[in-house]
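S.,

Sequence below, as promised.
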Amino acid sequence: MNQIVQALDPVPRFDRILVVTNRDVVPDLLDLFFAVLPVTDETPALLQKIFRAQRQRRSSTNAAEEDLKGVSEARPAPLLIIVDGTVNFEAGTTDSGLGVAASHFLNWLETAAPMIPVMVLSSTMIEKLELAVLSRRNVVLFSTRPDLAHDASSEFRDALENLVSGKRRVKRRITIDVGQDSATYRFKTEYGEFCTDAKPYINKQHIPFLIQSVGAFNPYRGGDLQPDWKSTLNLIGYQLFDVLINDSIGPHIAAMLKTMPPPAAKPMTDMQQVAVELRFEINGDHPDDTKLFVLPFELASPNLDSAETFLCTLVPMARRVRLAQIYRREPHKFYLQGRAPRVLFVRANAQGNVKFVYDTTGERTEEQYLAPLKNIDDELDLLKHIAKGSKYKLLKRPIVVGGPNARTGLELAKAIRHLLETGRFEILHFSGHSTRLEDGSTYLVLPGENKTAYTISATELGKWVQAGGCELVVLSSCRGASVQTAIQTIRGGAKAVLGFRWDVDAAGCKRFFDRFYEVYLRDIHSESHSIGEAYRDACQNAKAAFSGMPLWASAVAVENE
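The prediction came back faster than expected:
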C-alpha cells in the first residue's frame, strides 16, 4: 500500500517528509526503502522520527514551494525533503531540460528553508543537478539506477544517516582535468561519480599569455616586495577563472563562495565548511600539458576587484599530477600499530657559493651566494611543540638531521636517505634553501664543506621518497614548488607534497605550518583525510596574519589519491 499521502490542504500535527515528484514509481520505491529500515534504541533520535514520519507528496516544485511558504507553528516544516530530479515546475508539463526545476527548487530552498535536509533522487546523471547538489552542505544526491545499487536499502539508510548527521565519509569533489585546449570536469559525490565531455575553452587564446606572464612574475624584485603584487595577482586570478571555470562550473562556484562565512580565527566547524573540494589535474606524462603547472590555479577568482575570493583561502583544494607509472608500496599504517606519525626534519641551513645545472642543456648557472637562514629552528620548535603538546599522540618527537657540527654535502645526503630507508617516516619536512631554474629544473640545497653548498635534484628527492615510503613531503623553502618536484615525489610514491612557488619569509612560514599541521594531523586517521582542508586553512591563517606578504599566495599543494 502506498504510504505517501497526496494531501491538498491538510493541517498536519505530526512529523512529516515532503516528497516532490510527479512520477508514481518514486512513492513505490520509497515504500520499499522505508519498509525495511530498522529502527532500534541506538538509532539517532532525528533518524527515528524521519523513519516514522508521514510522507506527503507534491507533484511539482511550485506546489512544494507553496507548501513550505505555509509553514507555521500549527503547520510545522518537514523533517526532510525528498526531491525527484526529473520533477517539473508544474504538474502535467514538460520542462526545457532534465533537472531544471529540481535545480531551481534547490536554489529557492537555499534562501527559503536552508536548514531542512534534502535528498535528491536521480536515475541518471544530470550535470546541472549534480552541480546544484555539490554546492550545498545539507543536500545529498542518491542514485536510483538499478545497475549501481548493490544493496539499495542499506545505501539509502546510509545516505539518510550521513545527511541528517552532517557527517560525510566521502568528500564531494570537483576535479578539473586541465588540458591545452579544453577541460574535463568530474563530479564525485557520496554515491557515484559523473564525468563531462571535454569542454573547449572559449578564450583559450589567453592561456599561452597567462603561462608566459605567470612564469615571468615574481612578487619580489631584487629582494624587495613589489608594491603592485596584489593587483597583479587579482588580474591573473580573474583571467584564470574566466578561461578555465567561468563558462562551465563557474556560476556554481561563485554562488557557493557567496554563501560562505568570512575566514575565522579558528578552523571552520563542520557546518561552516564548504561542501566541496576542488582538484586541478594535469597530465604529468605529456610535456605540453606539464607547462600548465605554472598556472596559479589556487588564485583563480570570480571577482576582479576583490582579493577575498581567491580559491585557496576559501575552498579545500589541491593539484593532482596524473602519471602512468607511480611507485606503489604498502603504506606504513602507523595508526594500526598504535603510534603517531613520524617526521624527519631536515635542517638544511646552507650558506656559501653554489652553481646549479640546467636539466635541458647540462649547462651550469653562474655562481650564486646563499646567505644563512636566521629562523630555521622556528619550524622545528613548532613540530616539537605539537608532539609534546599532544603527548605524542598526534606526532612522534621529530628526528633531526643536519645542523651545526653535523655531516655536510654527500655524507649528509647519504645520512638522510639512510634514515628514510630505515626509520619508516610518514612525513619529510625540509627546511632550507631551494631554487627553480628557467627550464623548470628544481634543486634543494644542503650545507656543503667549508661554507659551500651541495645541491639535490628533484629526481634525487623522488628517490628519497621512494626509499622511505613517505606519505607527505613538505618543502619549506623558496621556489621549491615546481612540476618537476611534483612529478618526482608523486612518482616516488608520496601521497602529497607541499611547497612554495616564490620566496618565503620565516615568520609567515611558521604561521602557515602552525595551522597546516594542526588540521592535517587532526584527521589523519579519517577515511576522508586529504591535504585540501589543511592547505585551505593554512592559507587563510597566513593571509589573515600577514596580508601584506604573498606567502599564502605562494603555497602549492599536490595530492595523489
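The CA atoms of residues 7 and 56 lie 6 Å apart.

Coffee later?
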